Amino acid sequence: MRLTAHDRRQRRWATSTKRYRSHTVPVDHSPVLPAIPITTVRLGAEVEKLVLGVLRSGMIAQGLLVKRLEDEFAELIGVDHVVAVNNGTTALIAALQVLDLQPGDEVITSPFTFVATLNAIIESGATARFADIDDRDFNIDPSTVGAVVNDRTKVLLPVHLYGQCADMDQLGDVASAANLAVVEDAAQAHGARVGDKAAGSWGTGCFSLYATKNLTTGEGGLISTNDASSADRLRVLRNQGMRQRYVYEMAGNNYRLTDLQAAVCLPQLTGYGRQVATRQAHARRLNEGLRGLPGVRVPEALPGRHHVWHQYTILVGDDARLDRDGLLEALTGEGIGCGIYYPRTVFDYHCYREHPQVVVAEAPVASDVARRCLSLPVHP
Ligand SMILES: *Cc1c(COP(=O)(O)O)cnc(C)c1O
Questions:
Q1: Distance 294 CA to ligand 1 centre (A)
Q2: pLDDT in tens, 39-61
Q3: Which of 185, 248, 316, 367 is the most buried (most CB within 10 A)?
Q4: Cβ–Cβ contacts within 10 Å for residue 62, how many?
């Protein structure tokens, strides 16, 4: 099981809360409980009711509720087809697998992302190559893509980090000029838009429903597409390559989501607009309070972009009174949860520097951002 620093913190927090409850007097060497954690998961009575209904129905694997989740999410983001899968990483893997990439084919992505983006490219058999990012939206800078496109490039895989879409107008032009398929890592960007076009509607959109994402099933994923034949291939791939039982059309896998999980997510869709509005209000309030502090750059939604504020991430500069790590420590000491997403460029680890499917290159903006970024609580 993958345990992120966040998971570990949340776990520590959960156990220390229990310890607190079982004693009349708190043990005073226990860690400071975050008064404001970096993420919270709160699921209401409607989730409990729907989950209980599924449990009692005895039909707990993929069924009608998964179908309902697919349809309602398609409606929410304005695409024709959504295919639910068991996590965001498999969403990316499946989206790449149906493109029939050959060994040596290349996928261009962001160097500043969660490692799942890179792992999915490797799993698909392709080779990863990196553009650089723009430090205003933390996403691929379209002007850095041309230099890494070559005859083996088949896919452009932008990441919509922190809940803000990449510059898809420009990236779309770059992709069509070079005849590249577009796979979007929209794991953090449910409902994010540029104008009235939503994340996941430029190419194949890959969403995560992991516990800490804006919408969650604990573990889960969704793939969006406007292409009926890709949707069809994704459904067959998800189900061991079968359309009919024991009739195999392709080498598939088990990427299915369960009704039990869909039941956790469905009621969240109803209130999602409200959740995003609250995140936006929190981001505005933080910006009002923090803008102008020496050495702190607050995050902004760029013109025309509807930001869903999965994370609120500041950049700490050299002229700040504390450096990034000092600030993290000080805030943690005050019970304010914060996180570093992400501490290094994604390829900057021994296992990738040596990897035959990873082309390591300098990404100066991403490296600099990785040293300076700090995410503060923005959740509702
Ligand atoms: C969470 C995340 C993923 C992977 O999703 P899982 O559901 O955890 O597999 C991929 N890319 C990014 C940017 C993410 O934040």
A1: 33
A2: 989 899 999 999 999 999 999 99
A3: 185
A4: 21
